From TrEMBL:
Protein name as catalogued: HTH tetR-type domain-containing protein
Superkingdom to which the source organism belongs: Bacteria
DNA-binding region: 29-48
SUPFAM superfamilies with a match to the protein in the record: Homeodomain-like, Tetracyclin repressor-like, C-terminal domain
Organism: Corynebacterium doosanense CAU 212 = DSM 45436
Length: 184
């Protein structure tokens, strides 16, 4: 794929996120995405033959983008890396909760779309395995940390707790998990 084609494809995928953020996943159509991306409907269909392909690839692109920003290749200690992994979705003063809302739209879609469900499951499995590896804990403890993070992100997204409080809880639990022997 040429650089120009890759850029257009990325612009279309980013436009899907824009449509989801404004109108929800039901608002995603070739026309709405083309309008958001500033391209023709034909170009959208060229890259993504069906609406399902458009949504599925956008979900995959979101996961890939999040993975690319993970500090796995940076020189940080394991606790910091895991805490960043578990807190990256928390809204901060410099970041709106838009991405979390889009993720939740994909999560809702996963209830009826096996491909989106598999994309999200693979991402969670990868995160769980990375947490277990970095903290030298079992996968059950790592899954528990992920579940805690998911719940705290939801609470922060809804405004029930502050993102700072969520980070504090997650940091404490990462330290606790590392110090305790594995369950499995």
């Amino acid at each position: 794929m040429s650089a120009q084609n890759s850029d257009r494809r990325s612009a279309v995928l980013a436009a899907v996120w824009g449509v989801i953020a404004e109108r929800g996943i039901d608002g995603v159509s070739f026309r709405s995405v083309a309008r958001e991306a500033g391209v023709s409907t034909g170009l959208v269909q060229h890259h993504f033959p069906t609406r399902a392909d458009l949504i599925r690839e956008s979900a995959r692109w979101m996961i890939d983008s999040a993975s690319a920003s993970y500090p796995a290749t940076r020189d940080v200690d394991d606790d910091t890396a895991v805490t960043e992994l578990l807190t990256h979705a928390l809204p901060s003063a410099s970041q709106s909760p838009r991405g979390v809302g889009i993720y939740y739209a994909f999560l809702a879609t996963a209830a009826t779309d096996a491909v989106v469900r598999e994309v999200l499951r693979e991402a969670k499995d990868g995160a769980r395995d990375e947490i277990a590896r970095r903290l030298r804990i079992g996968t059950l403890e790592a899954a528990a940390l992920l579940a805690l993070s998911d719940g705290l992100v939801q609470q922060a997204y809804l405004g029930a707790i502050s993102p700072e409080a969520a980070v504090s809880v997650i940091s404490r639990e990462v330290e606790r998990a590392r110090k305790n022997p594995p369950l499995e």
